[in-house]
Sequence to fold (491 residues):
Amino acid sequence: MASAPVRVRFCPSPTGNPHVGLVRTALFNWAFAKHHQGTLVFRIEDTDAARDSEESYEQLLDSMRWLGFDWDEGPEIGGPHAPYRQSQRMDLYKEVAGKLLDAGHAYHCYCSQQELDTRREAARAAGRPSGYDGHCRELTEAQVEEYKAQGRAPIVRFRMPDETITFTDLVRGELTFTPENVPDYGIVRANGAPLYTLVNPVDDALMEITHVLRGEDLLSSTPRQIALYKALTELGIAKQTPSFGHLPYVMGEGNKKLSKRDPESSLNLYRERGFLPEGLLNYLSLLGWSLSADQDIFTMDEMVAAFDVADVQPNPARFDLKKCESINGDHIRLLDVKDFTERCAPWLRAPFAPWAPEDFDESKWHAIAPHAQTRLKVLSEITDNVDFLFLAEPVFDEASWTKAMKDGSDALLRTAREKLESADWTSAESLKEAVLAAGEAHGLKLGKAQAPVRVAVTGRTVGLPLFESLEVLGKETTLARIDTALVKLTA
Fold:
């Protein structure tokens, strides 16, 4: 019998800026669906009106598009199981909850929060599991009427079967949960609002999801969902119980799970700094998975071809910003030069660029771009790397000035100016030979000789290849800046 076509889902809540842990989950679901020529369902869990916002919803869609995730069903696309926003599916959840109550798979629970807390504390003191104790499981009609007379509004609680639940996790292998550790749980609030514990499995059932790949933090709820799936199958609502795979935590500083409050978790931060989507996704894929033992840099097509959720490691993965930047830099260097110049465009104009729009020289930018591409880790670094080309004067970093301008730098600069004036300005190699000759005249190797020239012309001790930069900047401007530096040195 052929297995059902793969259907996975990514179902975030629109509550603020997406974080990298969420992106990693989306990536693994996307790659899994693509690898199996399956379907990726993009679903929005927006039942929490107090936390969800339309702005966050739009930001979520924009982030998915920026990352290059193309979904097969969901917002803006539609599909056979629409709508794909839970806030528009409330009647469905109400209907399913009613069927669960009628069939005895769920019941009304009238316990107050104070009563629950008191009984839980007593259970802890006695060394027993502190989950719900089944107090309202078998209420008599008289007890129900008494609670109603007291004005109590009940929640709906799912009736867990008195049996051990075992399943094979796609990442962690066989897992077993005993009944005492998985008590009955709420699925509908007293005000009638459905809870995540109901809406998520119901949507997965109705949308015929075959595989659920989600964070490790949700593992404890899986036996509940498996039991609910069994009930939904009995009622003809579900066709099958999906396979579950729980992805490892992404760790931040101090062996703690990376949270939304951690600055490095913000997807917007990476967009603003100029990470490439493919560079960021390449790094995030390494948080729990690898293409091979000796290959860290790969395309998303290569990942899709190789991705197997069975290869995901269960151990927590630590987020390393430096490695993330390094991998992004490798992807910048893999770009076609034309693509690179186009992707840098946002950082070459206001509000990022410190120069006036009319001072930007397209020809100079295209001439320097191939050299800049070899140096950047993130695209936003381009602004500081090329500002010397478009500003009337370089922005001097005083620390760099002090570091480069040692005793005798004025004499060296005068010699360098003399050599550069007679050099061939159509050849970076000729400019290098000019500065090398100036250094030799003062007993200095090229590294020491070029430092004062670089600071005089660009304002910084580090940057793009110096002699290619001088060639692009041009003879007249270069010599004028050396003259300005000489004035500053002798002032």
In short: The radius of gyration is 31 Å.
